[in-house]
Write a structure and sequence with these properties.
The complex is a heterodimer of chains A (about 325) and B (about 375). Chain A is built from 13 helices and 10 strands. Helices cover about 50% and strands about 15% of the residues of chain A. In chain A, helix 1 runs parallel beside helix 7 and helix 5 crosses helix 6. Chain A is globular and about 70 Å long. In chain A, the strands form 3 sheets. Chain A has a 4-stranded parallel sheet, sandwiched between helices. By secondary structure, chain A is an alpha/beta fold. Chain B has 14 helices and 8 strands. In chain B, strands 2-1-3-4 form a 4-stranded parallel sheet, sandwiched between helices. Chain B has a 4-stranded parallel sheet with strand order 6-5-7-8, sandwiched between helices. In chain B, helix 13 links the parallel strand 7 and strand 8. The longest helix of chain B has 28 residues. Chain B is globular, with a radius of gyration of 21 Å. The chains are: A alpha/beta (about 325), B alpha/beta (about 375). Chains A and B meet through helix 4 and helix 12 of A and helix 4 and helix 13 of B.
Amino acid sequence: MRVGIPRALFYYHLYPQWKSFFNHLGWEPVSSPPTHKLMADAGIVATVSEACFPVKIYYGHVLHLTRQRVDCIFSPRLVSIERRSYICPKFMGIPDMLKAQILDLPPLIDFCIDLSRDDGSFMKGLDQWSREWGLKPGQVRRAWAKAEEAGRSLAAICRQGHTLEEGIRIWEGQPVLKCISGDLTIGILGHCYTLNDRFLSLDIFERLRDMGVTAVTAEMLNPVEVERAASTLPKRVFWTVGRSAVGSAILMDNDRGIDGVIYMSCFGCGPDSMMSKIIERRMNKPFMLLTIDEHSGEAGVVTRLEAFCDMLRRQRRTGIENNLSPYGEFLYSH
Amino acid sequence: MRITFPHMGNSYIAIKALLEKMGLDVVVPPPCSKKTLELGVRYAPEFVCLPMKLNLGNFLEAMERAADTVLMAGGWGPCRFGYYAQVERDILNDLGHKFNMVIIEAPDSQLWGLVDQVRQLGVKASWIQVLSAIRLAWLKLKAVDRLEQELHHWLPRLLDKERGIRTVVRGLKHIDNAAEAASLQEVTEKASRELARLARDESNMEPVRIGLVGEIYTVLEPFANYDLERHLGRLGAEVVRSISMTQWVNDHLLGGFIPAAPSLHSTLSYARPYLRYWVGGHGRETVASTVKYARQNLDGVIQVAPLTCMPEIVAQAVLTRVQEVEAIPVMTMYFDEHAGEAGIITRLEAFLDMVRWRKTKLGDNDGKSVLGNRCGLG
C-alpha cells in the first residue's frame, strides 16, 4: 500500500512520526517533493482565494500526489496535538475541504487527531479506522506508540540547534551543512509550515545565513521554559503554535545572546494576527513582523531582512545610550 | 461604576434591560458608525477580523461617555474571538484608560456565571430582582427577533419600503423603552399590526427567498454587513436568517434550557456528509443551514463573514460542493473596513438577477442544466 504524505502544513512537525507509523504498518509512505511554483499555482487555483497561502500549498501537494501512483493520501483531521489547545479551524476541516474541491481524489486517510481532552477518544477513533481499513486495532495502536518515539527524536534533534526542516533531514540520515557562526543572532518565530517550506518562506534561513545571522527557532528552546514563559499571560493561549511563539518570544527577549526577533506570518492567518501584536507589545528588543502571501516579491523580503540586520549592527556600533533609536519602538500610529 | 458592552445588531436592547434591571449604571455605546470603525481600525491589529475593530471602537466611544467597566465575552478557541478581550484590554490599557474588564469565559459562560460576575462588581440586587431582569431581557430579545423577522417577511412585499423600515425602527425604540412585560407586549403588537397594514406591492407577493448564513456578528450587525438585509428587501427579496439572538442565547447562555426557543443543534445534522466536524465559530452551522435551505427550496443563499474569518473559509470551501450537489446558488461576501456600499448593492443585484432567471428557467425544464453553480466563485 503506497500512502502519499503531502509535504506541507504539519508535515514539518510530524513527518517522522507519520512515516514511522506507516512503516510499522508495513505500508510504503511517499512524501511529495519540496514545494515548487507549479505546485503552488495548482493549489491556488484549486481552493478558495480567501484561504491562507500554506493551505493553498497543501492543496498543491495533494494535487501532485493524486497524479502519482499512490493508493491513498494521508490527510488527518488535525484538531489538537496537546491538551486544551487547537491548531487552526482550517486544520479541522481540511479533509472535507479537499473532498469538496478535488474531485479525482484517491481515498483519504482522514482519522481525527484530537488530544485536547484525553487520549482515549483518539485511540477509539484509531481503532475504528483500523477496522474500516481491515487492520488489526492492536497492531495499529502499537505502530502509533512506536511512531511517537520518532516524533520525540525529531524534537531532540532540533533542540541541538536545528530547524525542523534540517531536523527531518538529519532524522532520515541525510547530510546537513551546518553553517559557520555569524555575528548576529536573531530569533525567528512563525508557524512551522511557513518557516520550514523554502518556497513559502522565500528561504528565510538560508538568506539570513548569507547575511551572517545565526537563526534561533522555537524548537531550539527548552519546551518547559517556553511553556512557563507563555503562562505569564493573563489568559492561556489556546493555539499550540501561538502559545509556543509567545513563550519563545519572552525567552528570546530575556536572552542577552539574541539581538532581535522576526515574526514571519502569512496573510490571513488568524492566530498570527493576534499573537504578533501580543508579542510586539511585550518585546523590548528590535522586532519585525514580516507578512507574506502568494504575491511576495523576493527582493522586497530580502531588502527588509537586510535592513533589519543593518539596523541591529548599527545599534551595536552606536550603543544603546543614544538619543536616536535605530529601530524605533512600538507606537500607536500607522 | 458605569458599565458598557459591545454592540451586535439590536442585542443592546436586551443587554441594557438586563443590566439596568439589576441596578447597574449602563452606557450603551453609540450605534456603530464610521467613527466607530475609524477608531477601531486605528488601534486594533491590522490583520484582525472586522468584529474586533468594531468592538474596540464601541469601547472607546463608550469611554468618551465615561464608561469605566467593560463587559465582554470570551472563549477557548479555535476561533479568534476567544482572545479578543485579552488584546482589547492590552490596547485600552496602553491608551491610558482606567477601567475594569468583566470577561465571561465559555464554556462556563452560563447565565449564572454572568450574574455572579456582575454581582461581584458590588451590585446589591436580590435574586428576585435578578430573575425578573433576566425575564424582561429575554422577552425583549424575543420581541426584537419577532419584529426583525416580520420585517424580513414584509419588506419585499411593501410598496413603500422605507415606511416599513421606519415602522420597525420606531417599534424597536418602543421595545427599548418598555419598562415591564405588559407594555412590552403592547408596543410589539402595535408595531406588528402597523407593519401588516401598510400598502402591499401586489406584483411581488411571492418574492425570491434568500437564506442568510455565516459568521454571527456579520449576520446580526447591520453596520458590519453594510445593511445587507435591508438592501435585499429593497431589491424585493425575502431574507431567511439562519441565526437569531434568541437562538444564540438559548444555545450558548441557557444551555438549550428553554425547549420552545429556537436552537441550531437540530440543524447541525444537515452538515453531514459535507462537513463532518465542528470547525469553530459558526462554520458548521453555515454549511448545515445552506443544506437545509436548499432542501426547503429557497432560491439562493448568501454567506457573509469578516475577511480572513477562519471557520467561514472552511465553510466556503465546502459550500462549493454543496451548491453543486444540493443545486442551490451560493454567494460568499467578505467584509472589511474597505468595503464600498455601491459595490455590495451591485453584487446583490447581480445575484438576485441570476437567482430570478434561474427560477424562471427551473419552471421550464428539470432544472439540472441551469444550475447557478459558478456564481459563488470569485
